[in-house]
Amino acid sequence: MTYLVYDGSFEGFLSVIFQCYQQDLSPANICREAAFQEILFAEKQFISTDEKQAERVWKGLQKKLHRRNKDLPYRTFLSEQPGIEMMLYRFICRLFDNNFSIETDYGDADVLQLKKIERQVLQETARLLEFVRFQETKDGIYFAPVEPAFDVLPFVLHHFKNRFADQQWIIYDIKRNYGFYYDLKTTQEIVLSEQNFSAWDGKVDANLLQENEVNYQRLWKNYFDSINIKERKNPKLQRQHMPQRYWKFLPEKSLK
């Protein structure tokens, strides 16, 4: 019973797939290194990330997948769902081992579940686009904290790079402790060693904000309150369209 362990990256997972074929491995499980727990009578094998091997697997997937499903492995991997590695491993093996399309074989439990997960990831991506709120800091950088249910931050970068091309910004996932910084030219992944913001709601320390930032947030809340019709307030419907887990990042919901 072999457990394959990798570094947790998508490239690392693709390297695992490559090694499964190269070494003729049939793993009992595939685990991220950070989540692996020693199991009695189980053999652990760590697979190092190899970018060339990962690229070969990815190119092979692109040739086998229909154009509407080309991002399915990456999207579902970033869902971080329990058991997603083995689900993708079985799907990819079946994809490579057959000359016919399996992508619409919803009688296969893995195919059906992966499509469901992909829809959830796409829905969360759309929500992230709607509910990102920036705070302007004294150094002219716009900072937006997020905490999506899935690791969908890479999917929204293109939108913000185009929408805010003339501004420096950071979108930071406080749950996963990483983000992306746009410097008016390129976008790069970052990890902030000094976090001058709340770990709960991402509010930047007041002494680091532009002088007018708090005023702008208060104006936005006043506008939100002024268009609200108290007699027609429907909290259940509001939570349906604006999930409550996003409220702490929204000035219109969090400012007193």
Order of SSEs, N→C?
EHEEHHHHEEHEEEHHH
Helix content: 40-55%
| Overall outline | elongated
Structural class: alpha/beta
* Quantity of strands, as a count: 8
Uncertain residue segments: none
**Major sheet: arrangement of strands:** 4-5-6-7-8
Overall average pLDDT:
90
Compute the number of helices: 9
* Amino-to-carboxy terminus distance: 56 Å
Q: Domains counted in the coordinates: how many?
A: 2
Write a compact overview of the structure shown:
The protein is of the alpha/beta class.
Keywords:
256 residues, alpha/beta, five-stranded mixed β-sheet, three-stranded parallel β-sheet, 41% helix, 14% strand, elongated
Describe it.
The chain has helices at residues 10-22, 51-64, 72-77, 84-97, 109-131, 153-163, 213-226, 235-241, 251-254, and strands at 2-6, 29-32, 43-46, 135-136, 141-146, 168-173, 178-182, 187-190. With 256 residues, it is an alpha/beta fold. The chain folds into 2 domains: 2-124, no CATH class; 132-254, no CATH class. The longest helix has 23 residues, at 109-131. The model has no long low-confidence stretch (mean pLDDT 90).
